Amino acid sequence: MTMRVLVVEDDKEIRALIRASLSVEGFEVQTAVSVSEASALLKHDLPDVLVLDLGLPDGDGIELVREVRKQHGLPILVVSARHQEAQKIQLLDAGADDYLTKPFSVGELLARIRVALRHRGTTLTAAVTEYTLDDLSVDLSAHLVRCKGETLHLTKTEFKLLARLVRSSGKVVTHRQLLVDVWGDEFLEHTHYLRLYMAQLRAKIEDNPAEPRYLLTETGVGYRLAAM
Ligand code: CA
Predict the structure, then answer these.
(1) What is the pLDDT of residues 105-133, one digit of tens each?
(2) What is the mean pLDDT of residues 176-201?
(3) Rounded to whole angstroms, how far apart are CA atoms 80 and 77?
């Protein structure tokens, strides 16, 4: 089955580059240059993946994300410039799956699309409950975390935090999403909890917590468990 991608990007060169590289990979590519053109297209025809540039001539795309997310589960990848960090977080919280900061490589874009499609595919059947990468393996249903062959003892909160990242492995999870899902709505402002527990988790899992290979920091946005 051919996967269909809608690329919303007003920059002609980037649009052409994304179109060419996704076509080579076998995707059927449709393009739009503005929020209004994209919403018009989406009303008629739903793609399998949406790639959305943040800086568009008629808006920042957040309404588009909300609109699509209300009705559909398709993966949404946001492409942004470095200075658009605050908007990027809003978009992720509104339901976008992941983001790429310009300039990005085509390989990165494809990898993110694959992860997002895999997640969307699996959430329809069963949630991701097992994670294995190099020395680390996590089995959520058995409540088991192993590192270099040894069972790790995590506190309840450390396990909840790791489990939340496993369920979204390979994808960025915002500070807000982590605080709400692990601690609850009323802890939204307590970002220091997150920093503290992340430091504890890294100390238990990482060889060098200062240069993590599993629990990655997405500066100003959140955290990402390295893709399997
Ligand atoms: Ca743009």
Answers:
(1) 888 999 999 888 887 765 444 567 899 99
(2) 93
(3) 10
CATH 1.10.10.10 assigned to domain 130-225? The reply is yes
CA of 65 to the centre of ligand 1 (A): 16
**Ligand 1 center to 8 CA (angstroms):** 9
Give the Å distance between the CA of 12 and the centre of ligand 1: 9
How high is the mean pLDDT of the chain? 90
> CA dihedral defined by 182, 148, 108, 165, rounded to 10 degrees?
-10
* Domain spans in the chain, listed from the N-terminal domain onward: 4-118, 130-225
The superfamily (CATH) of domain 4-118 is: Response regulator (3.40.50.2300)
Q: Which residues crowd ion ligand 1, with CB under 5 Å?
A: 10, 53, 55
25-51: average pLDDT: 92
* Beta carbons of 94 and 69 less than 8 angstroms apart: yes
Look at residues 126, 128, 168, 129 and name the one whose alpha carbon lies nearest to residue 145.
Answer: 129
* Over residues 58-69, mean pLDDT: 86
Give the distance (Å) from ligand 1 centre to CA of residue 221.
Answer: 20
